[in-house]
Task: structure prediction
Amino acid sequence: MDRLDQHQVSCPYCGVPVSVLLEPVEEGQDMIQDCGVCCRPIRLISDYEPQLGTQTLRALRDDD
Result:
């Protein structure tokens, strides 16, 4: 099994912190996860910076 990295973002609707596990991959990822508090869909977009070896995660409203 590949390594999973834990990321913390805030729900763009209610502001509650959401913990997300991501596999570090060089291509970006785009996924939907429901908030555990307000149950609204959060669009999660990850970007990988190969030169730095880091992955960033953005949380957007599903309609953005």
Summary: Residues 44 and 59 are 5 Å apart (CA to CA). The chain has a mean pLDDT of 86.
